[in-house]
Amino acid sequence: MFFCKDLFRSLARHSRKGLLALAVAVGLSAMLFLFAGAVASYQGELDRLEEDYDLTLTFTNVAGTSTKNLIIYDDRLQAIEESGLAEPGFYRATSFFSDGTEDDDAFLGNWWVQTVEAFTDDSPFEEAGADAVTYFDGYDGDSFFQGEEAVCLLEEGKFQRMGLSPGDSVTVVLYTSRQGQVFRGEETTLTVAGTYRELPPAYAGTNMVCSYWTMRRELKAMKLNLWPSQASMAITDPDNLNPLKEELKELGINPVDRTLNSFAEYGRTAVINDSLYIASAEPTLRSLSLLQALWPGVLAAAALIALLASYLLIQSRRQEIALQRSLGVSRGRIFFLFFGESAIPALVGVGISLIGCGLALGLPLASLLLPGLGFFCAFLLGSAAAVLLLLGGDVLAVLAAAD
Fold this sequence. Notes:
By secondary structure, this protein is α+β, with helices and mostly antiparallel strands. It is built from 13 helices and eleven strands. Helix 2 runs antiparallel to helix 9 (about 275-315), helix 2 (about 15-50) runs antiparallel to helix 12 (about 370-390) and helix 11 (about 330-360) runs antiparallel to helix 12 (about 370-390).
């Protein structure tokens, strides 16, 4: 209690030096906060650009004139998925099946088969209309298309012709094809998870729909390749753009060449819609990179100035410290008295600057706490070093020099 009274009496007696320490703390910490605010502002602009631009990787033919009816290598899609640089968007793959019914009436490659479409989401049904699909209990668009469960949707007429009920299963033989070649798989049993009335014209004649992941798993178990005819992927982090382009290069996926045959079927080419994003983000990214490179130097400079300022403010009172020591005041009491006189103005100054800059910049105070804490610690370090040096000095020499 008495120590606190002595501390505040001393602060009142040396108000000028206290105000100087307060001004140093406000000015230097404000410089740090404004710099941190500039970094946060540029980072916020980059985040906004990321939200404004949906970056996608789209497979196309070599001339970039078509994104559909391609022959895409599913193993390359899997490699990109496993890299974490992009995540699946919309995939479509057309395969075939036979079930021994009269619906096996499409002649292809010496096999009587029906068409099964595999998708990664229910967007084709959304395109067809709200009543295009009916899911049975336990299933919906998300659970059906995001899982690998051995389930399927049947065309409503086929479901009725087969005399099935909700939850029944069908046993089919799967096939896949590439450039007119048909590859026969094995029998598999799929649970009917729902029915659909129609699909958009692009999918006309389809008797069954599966999740893409289900089809991938089933064909892989049969040692057959899945050949998607359409694929796009979402790039969730713009920082992945350059690594993704390197990954595509290693996988043999080339950029568009509009001078080549526009009717090529193989989807060995991909397009990234990043030109507008790059044009918008590059200036901001350059400024942000510069500020981030300067940030350690700015923080170190502010901390050094704070340390020197607090050190010099304490050194200016060496005679007072020597006098108190000559009167028998303990070293610990002197240390905490003078250290507290330095800490309080610094703490108040950082607090004033923190609140003022936070309000002016519109930033949450939590984002400014770290640089403020670093500055405050440097200020205290300088004060502690100065007091400790003076406590270890020659009292008589200091008092004699004063006389």
